[in-house]
Amino acid sequence: MDKTPDALMIPEGLKTGARMSDRVASVVDIAEPLLVVDRQKGERAYFRIQPGGRLFATKNVHDTILFPKGHERDGRPRYNWVPQENGVEYGYLLENI
Amino acid sequence: MAATKAQLNWATVSFGTTAITRVTNGSFTQGGKILRFSGDTDVFTTIIATVNNEPSASFSTADVGTIMGIAPGTTNTLTATLNDAKGATGGAVVFTMINAVFENADTKAAHAQFGSVTGTWQAYSSDGVTSPLSFARQ
After folding, report:
1. Which tens digit of pLDDT belongs to each residue from B31-88?
2. Cβ proximity of A51 and B53 under 8 Å
3. What is the distance between the alpha carbons of residues A7 and A63, in angstroms, rounded to a whole number?
4. E strands along chain A, which residues?
């Protein structure tokens, strides 16, 4: 599968730096190129700290890992996750596959 | 100018379309809750598990009217930027809390002092799994 992922699951171990801004920058530096973020258009990579030492990153701050409560597919995965060699997982929205 | 790697002052704090200015203090917390276990002859905890997460936020400001004007239970997105200490590009961190529910406004004012109000928020997850608190580089 060779296309831009819709989401990323980044191991916290790839986060570097002693201060918060360093650590945020280190994650963003991984996420923004992979998600093809256009900062000139105001896009950003937003990441959330998830249990289990994972960082869930997307371009839309409202994205969720599972279908939201009340959705007809409530609780089921929204993404097909494809592991990469560096431990990052690329997520592809199931409705786009 | 290179980023200083130190943060100083909150900026562009907003709750939905409501701008929150004159901010004097602010915090976001991931709200992790853990459960400890010990049994048998243990005298120390042998298992610690994360059982729940309850993210929350709090901002204090001199703008009493704006915060007091938000009704408890109002749900929107709370956004705030923690600036680089010298305003360097790339040094600021943007906090975004979606599904933020305004909890309370607590106003204090003493004689011959500026009044201050502290607003508090709790946030919920849309799917029960994804944290409502995210981070980005400005």
Report:
1. 999 999 999 999 999 999 988 999 999 999 999 999 999 999 999 999 999 987 766 6
2. yes
3. 9
4. 7-11, 46-50, 54-58, 79-83, 89-93
Tell me how close the Cα of A23 comes to any Cα of chain B, in angstroms: 10
A2 in a domain, yes or no? no
Touching check for A63 and chain B: CB below 8 Å? yes
- How far apart CA B131 and CA A51 sit, in angstroms, is 9
Spell out the domains of chain B, with CATH numbers in brackets.
Answer: 7-137 (2.30.110)
Q: Which A residues 9-28 touch B at CB under 8 Å?
A: 17-22, 24-25, 27-28
Which residues of chain A make contact with B30, given a CB cutoff of 8 A? 49
pTM for this predicted structure: 0.90
Q: Which domain holds residue A74?
A: 7-96
Question: What's the number of domains chain A is made of?
Answer: 1
Task: Please check whether residue B99 is in contact with residue B124, taking contact to mean a CB–CB distance below 8 angstroms.
Answer: yes
Residue A39 lies inside a defined structural domain of this protein: yes
Question: Token match 């709200």: residue?
Answer: B31
Looking at the partner chain, which of B84, B125, B131 has a beta carbon nearest the beta carbon of A21? Answer: B84
Predicted complex ipTM? 0.92
Residues of chain A with pLDDT under 70: 1-2, 96-97
